[in-house]
């Protein structure tokens, strides 16, 4: 595939004037700068919806059980259906952006996400909610991979690092804000909607994102010839989705089912399935046809180590977040709002770290920033483990606040330079594939973290109590982050060096 296949043609008219194509000069006027900023907020707004929805449901379990009779298994699938569809469809969603245009797929993804969110709010039983949540995840997989590619398209190279430095922390804060927003909406029974309000929240955000995308994002190239247009690899699509399903499904369902033999058999089968997919991609590229994933990205050492970091970091963060929420509600018997508000120090730490990261990014460099964030987060988790162990079930939100603030601060330091550093390691025509792979591995890491740390927590809670079950989880998470810190040495020292 040529570079032009995945870049917006500079001569193509935009829906709105003067947002430049990739590589164009930065707009000189203040109005042009404002348009770029609004375009960034449009893209970030869509990602915020996704991250809020991936965490906001965690505090709505009791209300769902009471209102629509959701069983324990159904509650797990209301959360897991989203993750499963998202992880399995991400690479395909990224490739569709190459084939059909990033703006077009972004609009389709946002529209579908908003529609499925409204249907979630109208669910009359658990089965309908599981189905609509799965649809949400699928549309999110179409929407999210386009975001980072669009940022690289509308921002010239010299401004990209600054743009991505805003993108990362906004997502970190959104993920942390989910339980707070969810708890407030459920406990507050806004407009008498109860848990349904957590899904309807996406409607105004999504409609604003749709309007902004239609107006501000540059148009996709429309005049490609059939000879040069990329083709969708349908066989690769089936192989990638099947391989991801073999791995993710037992990770999601295995703990609920008591880790039966079929769960391990499916995970083992995913290894040759991914191997067959890789061989198919290589054969397709050698024959001159367009692969689903650009195989050249795996020849870039910095990108490979970046994806390993993604797996470790997001597995730690998601697993720890899940266990902390469960500990608060099961062990401390906090209400959804109380549990959500208890996570506020995390969000505050992330907000403050944005300013710190931007102030020192030029001097420290992205790799040092990332490793510093991991160090702060690991130390804070050890502090959380000590607090939980020392205070036991008498621990309060105020007792946990210092360690949670530190953890949020560390996450913000990692997120600020992270996306720019990882994607800087790939070429322009590889961005969509790389973005899809990074997001897919992020979801896989989250599933691994929740499954692994969740198993450790729930296996101990009935015999040792909530505090004795939670403290070791935080210690294990800190150890995994230590491994991520070591992997960080193989990532680029500077984003600029990775781009060259």
Question: Can you lay out the helices and strands and say which pair or pack?
Answer:
Layout: H1 30-56, H2 61-68, H3 72-100, H4 102-121, H5 126-154, H6 157-188, H7 197-200, H8 202-216, H9 234-253, H10 261-286, H11 301-331, H12 336-342, H13 344-364, H14 366-391, H15 397-423, H16 431-464, H17 466-487, H18 495-499
Structure description:
The chain folds into 3 domains: 27-219, Growth Hormone, Chain: A; 233-291; 297-500, Up-down Bundle (Growth Hormone, Chain: A). The protein contains 18 helices and no strands. It has helices at 30-56, 61-68, 72-100, 102-121, 126-154, 157-188, 197-200, 202-216, 234-253, 261-286, 301-331, 336-342, 344-364, 366-391, 397-423, 431-464, 466-487, 495-499. It is globular and about 60 Å long. It starts with 29 loop residues before the first helix and ends with a helix. Mean pLDDT is 78; it is low at 1-28 and 496-500.
Q: Percent of residues in beta strands?
A: under 5%
Helical content band: over 70%
Average pLDDT metric = 78
Shape: globular
Give the domain tally.
3
Number of strands: 0
Uncertain ranges: 1-28, 496-500
CATH class of the largest domain: Mainly Alpha
CATH fold naming of the largest domain: Growth Hormone, Chain: A
User: CATH superfamily assignment of the largest domain?
Assistant: MFS general substrate transporter like domains
Structural class by secondary-structure content: mainly alpha
CATH architecture of the largest domain: Up-down Bundle
Our count of helices gives 18
The major pleated sheet works out as: none
Q: Any idea what the radius of gyration is? A: 22 Å
Q: What's the end-to-end separation, in Å?
A: 21 Å
SSE ordering: HHHHHHHHHHHHHHHHHH
């Amino acid at each position: 595939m040529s570079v032009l296949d995945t870049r917006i043609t500079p001569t193509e008219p935009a829906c709105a004037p003067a947002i430049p194509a990739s590589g164009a000069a930065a707009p000189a006027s203040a109005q042009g700068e404002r348009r770029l900023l609004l375009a960034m907020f449009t893209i970030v707004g869509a990602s915020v919806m996704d991250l809020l929805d991936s965490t906001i449901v965690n505090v709505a379990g009791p209300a769902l059980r009471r209102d629509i009779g959701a069983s324990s298994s159904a509650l797990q699938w209301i959360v897991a259906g989203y993750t499963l569809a998202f992880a399995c469809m991400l690479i395909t969603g990224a490739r569709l952006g190459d084939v059909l245009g990033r703006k077009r797929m972004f609009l389709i993804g946002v529209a579908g996400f908003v529609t499925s969110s409204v249907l979630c709010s109208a669910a009359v039983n658990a089965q309908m909610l599981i189905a609509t949540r799965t649809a949400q995840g699928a549309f999110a997989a179409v929407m999210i991979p386009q975001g980072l590619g669009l940022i690289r398209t509308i921002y010239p190279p010299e401004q990209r690092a600054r743009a991505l430095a805003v993108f990362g922390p906004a997502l970190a804060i959104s993920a942390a804000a989910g339980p707070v927003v969810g708890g407030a909406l459920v406990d507050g029974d806004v407009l008498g909607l109860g848990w349904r309000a957590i899904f309807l929240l996406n409607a105004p955000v999504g409609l604003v994102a749709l309007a902004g995308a239609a107006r501000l994002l540059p148009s996709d190239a429309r005049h490609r010839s059939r000879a040069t247009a990329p083709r969708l690899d349908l066989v690769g699509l089936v192989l990638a989705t099947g391989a991801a399903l073999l791995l993710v499904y037992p990770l999601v369902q295995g703990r609920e089912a008591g880790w039966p033999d079929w769960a391990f058999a499916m995970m083992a089968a995913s290894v040759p399935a991914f191997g067959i997919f890789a061989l198919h991609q290589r054969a397709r590229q050698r024959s001159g046809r367009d692969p689903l994933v650009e195989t050249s990205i795996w020849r870039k050492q910095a990108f490979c180590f970046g994806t390993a970091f993604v797996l470790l970091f997001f597995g730690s963060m998601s697993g720890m977040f899940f266990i902390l929420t469960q500990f608060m509600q099961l062990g401390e018997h906090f209400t959804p709002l109380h549990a959500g508000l208890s996570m506020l120090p995390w969000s505050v730490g992330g907000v403050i770290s944005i300013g710190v990261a931007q102030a020192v990014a030029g001097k420290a460099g992205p790799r040092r920033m990332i490793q510093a964030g991991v160090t702060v987060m690991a130390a804070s988790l050890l502090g959380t483990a000590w607090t939980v162990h020392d205070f036991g079930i008498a621990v309060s939100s105020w007792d946990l606040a210092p360690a949670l603030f530190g953890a949020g601060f560390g996450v913000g330091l990692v997120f600020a330079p992270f996306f720019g550093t990882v994607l800087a390691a790939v070429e322009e025509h590889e961005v969509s594939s790389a973005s899809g792979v990074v997001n897919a591995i992020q979801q896989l890491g989250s599933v691994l973290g929740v499954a692994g740390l969740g198993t450790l927590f729930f296996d101990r809670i009935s015999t040792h109590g909530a505090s004795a079950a939670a403290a070791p989880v935080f210690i294990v998470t800190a150890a995994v982050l230590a491994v991520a810190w070591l992997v960080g040495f193989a990532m680029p020292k500077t984003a600029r060096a990775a781009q060259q």
